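Data deposition worksheet. Section B asks for the primary sequence of the deposited chain exactly as it was used as input, without tags or linkers unless they were present during the calculation. Section C holds the resulting structure in token form. Section D is free text for depositor observations; keep each observation to a single sentence. Incomplete worksheets are returned to the depositor.
Section A, Depositor: J.P.
Section B:
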Amino acid sequence: MQVVEKLRRIAPYAIIVLVSGYLYHRALGFDFERVPERIGPDAWPRIILTLLIAICGYQVLRLAVRRTTSEVEGVLQSLEEVADPSLLEPPQAHPGRALLGIALTFGYLLVFEVVGFFIATFVYLVALMYVGGYRRPLWALTISLAASLSFVFIFMKIVYVSLPLGRGPFLAVSVGVMKLLGIH
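Section C:
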């Protein structure tokens, strides 16, 4: 019975590995005109499929060597006995914060074209962290700056997505960021 249960849990992941392997093989045969120093349209499907195979393959191995449920239940019960009861309480809900987060997202989308992707994303992330209750301003600014720069680099340099640069003085900031990141 335990072997059948293990196989039942492993089967979906094994199927995903097999289907992903087949799709990866098909992606190797994409016919397109190569452009020097640029990745082709075959790269992203292969990258995603490789990650999917790795994650599901790991899950297959993990489930194959995992102990049975009855052994784990005894460990879980002993952990519950020593755990702090306050950790088991559900977190407090903040519907006002959620609505503010939604409003910020709509605001982000409205100013996106005018101020450009970089500035809009930076301000949005700082504001979202503050609304979410994060109260370390230096870290919020640092994280938002790093994330915004990373997004610009990934989307414009690696994925080749054209992002809004903004207008007027915002355009100058966006162009400066692109030069800093080596995006031409």
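Section D:
The longest helix spans residues 2-27.
DSSP finds seven helices and no strands in the chain.
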